[in-house]
Design a protein that fits this description.
The complex is a heterotrimer. Helix content of chain A is about 30%, strand content about 15%. Chain A has seven helices and six strands, in the order H-E-E-E-H-E-E-E-H-H-H-H-H. Chain A has helices at about 5-10, 65-75, 120, 130-135, 145-160, 180-185, 200-210, and strands at about 20-25, 45-50, 55-60, 95, 100, 115. Chain A has a five-stranded mixed beta sheet, with helices on both faces. The longest helix of chain A has 16 residues, at about 145-160. Chain A is globular and about 60 Å long. The relative contact order of chain A is 0.11. Chain B is α+β, with helices and mostly antiparallel strands. Chain B starts with a strand and ends in a 22-residue tail after the last helix. The longest helix of chain B has 24 residues, at about 515-535. Chain B has 15 helices and 30 strands. In chain B, about 25% of the residues lie in helices and about 25% in strands. In chain B, the strands form seven sheets. In chain B, strands 4-6-2-13-10-11-12 form a seven-stranded mixed beta sheet. In chain B, strands 1-25-19-20-21 form a five-stranded mixed beta sheet, covered by helices on one side. In chain B, strands 8-16-15-14-9 form a five-stranded mixed beta sheet, sandwiched between helices. Chain C has twelve helices and eleven strands. In chain C, strand 2, helix 2 (about 35-40) and strand 3 form a beta-alpha-beta unit. In chain C, helix 5 (about 90-95) runs antiparallel to helix 9 (about 165-170). Chain C starts with a strand and ends with a helix. The chains are: A alpha+beta, B alpha+beta, C alpha+beta. Chains in contact: A-B, A-C, B-C.
């Protein structure tokens, strides 16, 4: 079997420090630690104001704060979930100015003046949105962690179809897309459910759209 | 309560609430984003700081030096925890590798430090300023290359490495029809949607962890051992868990480092594992190499069945028990199974949904398909011929229930199996080659001691408390249904509280034992509460009826709450088990049917139809149980078609360690799924007469997909996942 | 993520001026790739210039009969534009084959062109990667390379460009309009936009530092049947193993561009002359000189077979 030593010989340059001891390549100091004698200054912050679920919110945030973390950690709207923080799962889906986005890959400070709808804005346990009710009725969730993202996405998907936005499975690009199970599956594919509630989720959305799954 | 003889008629058999497809009671919270998961508990402790973990950049070796100066000087940093500063830590019984590494490094992305800061952004940035120099050691990272060093693993939880019945070698050699084939399954990752997360707070020497964990009592014990403090000083609270699949059976680095970080910072600390870090930091389902030999008579009776499996793990780890089902699933007088375990320096292997059977059936059920073809038999007929109603290794021991044949035959009728062309590569639908596949599903039923406490208040509300967890399985709901059935109240008069170590110890969620075991524990507690109610009301316990929110005895009838009019009634009990599981082999059975399309030009594989038929004892809630099965079918489709942790054999880590690189099925991969439960009860399992389905659902699915791909294309792929690159050179030429 | 200062600008001139006066600045629009990389400290700008609200969000007809697509036009809006759907179906198809609905709602035209490779070793900062850290080596060579380039790669880098949109843009002969810090405008043919990795895989495009993409222009429609076939393991929300974009005319002539095979959308005009002779002949010229690894050699027959399927589909 290949060993790291063999590898070094055949792939010169991959391990800069040699086989026995390496300084892991990306954590070589870019400036010497000693050069910094006093504590670093506070990180840059910026003010932002946006509307969340109909309420104006003003925040002063570290510029690095994602919209997702602004919602979860600063506004304590924890219905929006962090599944991957890299746009790979859809659990953080919220609706901004009518469009669904991944709130993890968006800086909060870039949303000044925007109108944001989160799962909490769609409905509450006492007054559920039709999509939330349908998810319960069709058991379109299991662990529940991807669920708010699925529901926000589902609400937006029906609007997207209405607006004539095509998808990968739209057969005729020049004709208006229809609400079909095939269309819903493709359009919902940015929302991963590892519990595998997909079949039930499509039933729930179809129910709300008034079509047969 | 002790369960020692098969159940007779009991209040559960009324089936007024149990057995009904009620909506899950946690639904309104989960669908509105108001169910609180571990990292979201802003309310439980004030002044929470943020921890961010630093993981090892090498797979094996040691930390030569660690410089924390820059990280310490970074804005907002409150504390840094490393093995040097953490004090003496033991390793938990359930952990193979230490949760906090250093100076020795056992695997890639093993945690080596925690940086605690005022904000998440500050902690994350400062973590990258921890400067580490490593001395890289030589490790073993490739299973196929380590086979020579594999040893016979010791017996763990009663599972021996090798079994043998009759004379396998002679019978196989003499068999008129033989199959001898090698199969591989890759490493899989749980990839649950909620990353492992914990908030820790200390009050003096008492620690509270709000975490995401399937097995509360195990993890309290292991955390106590790791930290060297009494169990009584630790409280774990895990009411909502964003998926587990075996990946949250044990404490992981988030929990330990939150505890250590909170101690170092002198305030509550919250830690979540970043997604790209989870795969190599936590556990995974280990890869296997399997050899299966089948010998049969010309008319299809198996005379020899042999299954060997090799897997790897870190030193001190265990094997993937991929031969488990082969010991029980099919008849055959001459049998052998064997497992071998190699030391690998990859991250820790451990349980993932149906450990053993899931990868074992991925191989065995392809082998059965291959053998059926050699015999010229329909694959369903071949399985039916080789059914056994007794444990084939110990024929004196019957199955408590076994309706595998009925699963296969019911499914065949429902799925339209008769339309399948037995000759592969014959069916076309436009640009798609179409095929059908079948596989048997098998998973043992396990029971575990489980306790609960029930409270009755004067308004007639029954509150159940148990440390049982709901990982998406429906525990809240079936426990509520059990209590409602037992106490004769509607579902909305039951409150269920789960996941808190302050509650009585349950079976927890794992090994598909949760549903039957935890509800049986609630049954026991409710039986005690019924006695207390009768006694309080001065009723004769023997003839007291609980129904419609009332308690009746003879001509007397009062509302249930009356019994608690001068104070809450509280009862606590546990269900313990005798030897019925030794007398009877208790297993769950099923059959999976899959139709696939394979693109004639590109080899892209898409699942078109899926059906599962399950025989798994009483189904406590058909809606929730169906969800368990479709979810497992989805994970099985992933295992069949896309899931594989790519091992870098030079550097020793899983390369595709995020949700972009490790593909799991998305909506577009999964068609409408059908599930049929055969109507049955198993009185040997508990008064609930139930078993589990959550793992049964994944068992065999991948093989059914692989067999369907073969039926569509005529190309047999024995190395999972079945991806188009393994088909492309063998597909028919296209114009 | 390193801390950074942030400003929002209203005009391209303000954007380039802001860049000129800042140290380590980057433009940010949709952010779907840049923020992903910043979280892992693969990108570490000290200053972010928010160009997402520049008035570059229009799709306008050009005097040459084509379309001028503003750099800030979102992928969803571009794919949905009536003219694009009618006349540049390949572009619409490629766009909706990429990413997810959520990401397409944020991702911009310019950002899509400029997205960086998804090589897992590029993404893992513990691993050597010449693109991320010049001179550190390439871990993908000899490593997990099933998804990597089969053509145009170098000893230093075998990464692919992940964009679907760019494949269509290449087949459509798009040109990229930019403005630099001095206010100088220029256009770059998409064929010249991506740099071969050679010994400097960290240099990916023809853009100079601070040069801002303002628009992408499509020439007038070429007609024909447009087919985009993206091949992947799962059915959606995945990067391509390979992708074939083709425009096929009634007389059998046409254009072919590939995704998932190299550092850029791969098109060889000379290979298109072979279209009447079929996929095998086209692929032989298109992928001449390909050097696959053991793990990605399947891409060669896959391209040929996918193209054959695409041509069959185009013929109806």
């Amino acid at each position: 079997m290949q060993t790291p030593g063999d590898f070094d010989l055949s792939r010169r340059g991959v391990l800069a420090g040699g086989a026995a001891s390496i300084a892991a390549v990306t954590i070589v100091p870019t400036e010497p630690a000693a050069a910094r004698s006093k504590p670093a200054p506070a990180p840059p912050a910026a003010k932002v104001a946006f509307e969340v679920n109909g309420t104006r919110r003003e925040l002063e945030l570290d510029t690095r704060t994602s919209l997702l973390d602004a919602l979860r950690e600063h506004l304590h709207l924890t219905g929006t979930k962090k599944g991957c923080d890299h746009g790979q799962c859809g659990a953080c889906t919220v609706i901004v100015d009518g469009r669904r986005i991944n709130s993890c890959l968006s800086l909060a400070v870039m949303h000044d003046g925007d109108k944001i709808t989160t799962i909490e804005g769609l409905g509450t346990p006492d007054k559920m949105h039709a999509m939330q009710t349908a998810f319960v009725e069709h058991d379109g969730y299991q662990c529940g962690y991807c669920t708010p993202g699925q529901i926000c996405s589902a609400v937006a998907v029906l609007d997207e179809i209405k607006a004539g936005i095509p998808s990968h499975v739209t057969a005729d690009l020049t004709a208006p897309p229809q609400v079909t199970a095939l269309e819903l599956r493709e359009r919902m594919s940015g929302n991963i459910c590892r519990c595998g509630a997909y079949s039930n989720i499509i039933d729930a959305i179809s129910d709300v759209a008034g079509v047969k799954a | 309560m002790k369960f020692e003889t098969p159940a007779t008629t009991n209040p559960i058999d009324q089936l007024k609430i149990i057995g009904k497809p009620t909506n899950r009671i946690d639904g309104p919270l989960k669908t509105t984003g108001t169910a609180p998961y571990a990292y979201e508990r802003h309310d439980v402790a004030a002044n929470q700081a943020y921890g961010y973990i630093v993981g090892s950049a090498i797979a094996k070796g040691r930390i030569a030096s660690m410089n924390l100066d820059e990280a310490r000087a970074a804005p907002g940093v409150i504390a840094i925890v490393t093995a040097d500063t953490a004090g003496k830590l033991a390793k938990g019984d359930f952990n193979t590798a230490k949760l906090l590494g250093g100076p020795a490094v056992d695997h890639y992305h093993q945690a080596i430090a925690l940086v605690v800061a005022e904000s998440f952004e500050q902690a994350r940035a400062a973590a990258s300023l921890v400067r580490v120099e490593y001395a890289r050691g030589k490790g073993k990272f490739e299973l196929a290359a380590a086979l020579d060093t594999a040893i016979t693993p010791p017996t763990v939880f009663g599972t021996v490495a090798d079994t043998s019945v009759g004379d396998f070698a002679a019978a196989f050699a003499a068999a008129p029809v033989q199959l001898d084939a090698r199969y591989t399954t890759p490493d899989h990752t749980h990839a649950m949607m909620e990353p492992h997360a914990s908030i820790a707070a200390w009050a003096g020497d008492k620690l509270t962890l709000w975490t995401s964990n399937q097995m509360i009592a195990w993890s309290v014990g292991d955390m106590a051992k790791t930290l060297g403090i009494p169990k009584e000083n630790i409280r774990l609270d895990s009411p909502y868990i964003g998926g587990g699949f075996g990946g949250k059976l044990f404490n992981r680095a988030d929990a330990l480092l939150a505890a250590l970080g909170a101690k170092a910072a002198g305030r509550p600390v919250k830690v979540a594992l970043p997604r790209p870090f989870m795969t190599n930091n936590t556990t995974h389902r280990p890869a296997t190499i399997q050899r299966i030999r089948l010998g049969a008579t010309a008319d299809g009776k198996i005379t020899a069945i042999g299954h060997e499996s090799w897997s790897g793990d870190l030193p001190g780890g265990g094997p993937e028990v991929a031969v488990a089902q082969t010991r029980l699933l099919y008849a055959g007088a001459n049998r052998m199974t064997a497992m071998r375990l190699a030391v690998l320096d990859l991250p820790e292997g451990n349980a993932m949904r149906a450990p053993g059977e899931a990868p074992g059936l991925m191989a065995l059920e392809i082998a059965m398909d291959e053998m059926a073809e050699k015999l010229g038999l329909d694959p369903i007929e071949f399985r039916v011929i080789n059914d056994t109603q007794v444990d084939p290794e110990k024929p004196s021991r019957p199955f408590s229930q076994r309706r595998l044949n009925e699963c296969l035959q019911t499914g065949a009728a429902k799925f339209g199996w008769s339309k399948r062309n037995a000759k592969a590569g014959q069916t076309r639908d436009g640009r798609w080659l179409v095929g059908m596949g079948v596989a048997a599903a098998f998973r043992n039923n396990l029971n575990a001691t489980s306790a609960a406490r029930v409270r009755l208040d004067k308004s007639g509300v029954v509150t159940v408390e148990t440390d049982m967890t709901d990982i998406g399985t429906g525990s809240y709901t079936i426990i509520a249904q059990t209590a409602a059935e037992m106490m004769g109240v509607p579902l909305d008069k039951v409150v269920v509280k789960l996941g808190d170590s302050a509650f009585p110890v349950s079976a927890g969620s794992g090994g598909q034992w949760g549903a039957n075991s935890s509800t049986a524990g609630v049954y026991a507690a409710c039986a005690k509460l019924r006695e207390a109610v009768a006694q309080k009301l001065g009723f004769n316990a023997a003839d007291t009826v609980f129904a419609g929110g009332k308690v009746k005895s003879g001509r007397r009838s009062v509302v249930l709450g009356e019994a608690a009019s001068d104070g809450e009634l509280v009862a606590e009990d546990m269900m313990e088990y005798g030897d019925l599981a030794e007398k009877y082999q208790q297993s769950t059975f099923g059959a999976h049917f899959v139709e696939v399309g394979v693109h004639a030009a590109t080899g892209e594989i898409r699942v078109r139809r899926m059906l599962a038929v399950c025989a798994a004892g009483r189904i406590l809630n058909p809606k929730a149980a169906r969800s368990q099965v479709i979810g497992a079918m989805t994970m099985g489709a992933g295992a069949a078609l896309m899931e594989e942790l790519a091992v870098d054999k030079r550097f020793g880590f899983f390369v595709n360690h995020d949700l972009a690189g490790y593909e799991v099925p998305v909506h577009a991969d999964i068609p409408h799924q059908d599930v049929i439960f055969l109507d049955e009860t198993d009185p040997t399992t508990s008064p609930m007469k139930a078993k589990g389905v959550g793992e049964l659902g994944i068992c065999g699915v991948a093989a059914a997909v692989a067999n369907a791909v073969y039926n569509a294309t005529g190309v047999r792929v024995r190395n999972y996942p079945v991806t188009l690159d393994k088909l492309i050179d063998k597909l028919p030429d296209i114009a | 993520m390193k801390s950074f200062t942030y400003e929002r600008v209203d005009t391209p001139a303000a954007a380039t001026a802001a860049f000129a006066r800042s140290k380590d600045a980057r433009f940010i629009a949709g952010g779907t790739n840049l923020l992903d990389l910043m979280k892992l400290e693969i990108e570490t700008p000290a200053h972010l210039i928010d160009v997402s609200r520049l008035a570059l969000d229009k799709i306008e007809a050009t005097t040459a009969g084509g379309l001028r697509i503003g750099a800030m036009v979102r992928n969803t809006d571009l794919a949905s534009d009536e003219r694009v759907r009618r006349d540049y179906g390949l572009l619409s198809r490629a766009l909706v084959a990429g990413a997810s609905g959520q990401l397409r709602n944020k991702a911009t035209t310019a950002g899509n062109l400029l997205q960086r490779t998804r090589c897992p070793y590029f993404y893992d900062t513990n691993q050597p990667c010449n693109k991320r850290q010049p001179g550190s080596g390439c871990a993908a060579i000899g490593g997990f390379s099933r998804l990597h380039a089969v053509i145009g790669a170098s000893e230093a880098c075998i990464a692919t460009h992940p964009s679907d949109m760019a494949v269509a843009m290449r087949a459509l002969d798009a040109t990229i309009e930019t403005v630099d810090a001095a206010g100088k405008e220029r256009t770059i043919a998409i064929a010249d936009f991506y740099r071969a990795p050679g010994k400097t895989p960290h240099l990916e495009t023809a853009l100079a530092p601070g040069e801002l993409v303002t628009a992408v222009t499509l020439p007038k429609p070429v007609g024909g049947t447009h087919v985009y076939h993206k091949v992947r393991d799962r059915a959606s929300y995945a990067f391509a193993l390979i992708a074939v974009g083709a425009i096929v005319q009634r007389d059998g002539s046409g254009r072919v561009a590939l995704g998932g095979v190299g550092y850029k959308p791969w098109r060889v005009e000379a290979a298109e002359a072979e279209l009447p002779r079929g996929a095998k002949a086209v692929t032989a010229k298109l992928l001449a000189g390909a050097k696959p690894s053991h793990e990605n050699a399947y891409k060669l027959p896959l391209v040929e077979r996918t193209l054959a399927g695409v041509l069959a589909q185009a013929r109806g």
